[in-house]
Amino acid sequence: MSGEPWPPASAEQPHEPQPSATHSLLLAYLVGLLTATLFLGTAFFFWRPPEAAPIQLLPPPTATATAVPTAPPTPAPIVVDVGGAVRQPGVLLLPPGARVVDALAAAGGLTAEADALQLNQAARLFDGAQVYVPALGASSALPPAGLSGTPSTPTSDSPQPARGLVDLNTATQAELETLPGIGATKAQAILANRPYATVAELDRVPGIGSATLQQLQGWVVVGP
Length: 224
Hints:
single chain; alpha/beta; DNA polymerase, domain 1; four-stranded mixed β-sheet; two-stranded parallel sheet; 5 helices; rod-shaped
């Protein structure tokens, strides 16, 4: 065995293969792609738009009942019968609240023979009333002069039993003229024939017959 080193110094050492340029470019591309992917993912996570609030469907508003003011009922017209010494006697349609003077005007006015003193032309009319205008010197057998009939409800300008009856022996002429069918002349005649023991004694007063007596029932009284 010789003293030469092993292996021989002159023997060639094997060389490691060097990476090619294509391999380097591919590696660089993969590293860049990975970096870009990480960057975009991070950016999308931190910069994504906030989620919109969910849409809530509200129920439609319910209609609120509104109180509608109601208009007061319109009073119906009244029907009256006008006869006697007027130019156009007959049944007339008049507005509510009309008075005897309105009925006379609607009937064409008084004739020359009319006894106007027998009438209370300010008396308020009512539905179904009769207005009779006597002629001068007419017989008491004719219908009672002035306003007659029975109102369904007492008129506002007539005395009502709830407020006290009219005493035939103590009432003034103005109080007597507020009675239905009683004008100035009849009121004077009632005063002239005092005293009365009963309401029925009114039949001795000129111009007051059974129809007027019936109409005055519940409106007059005879005091002690």
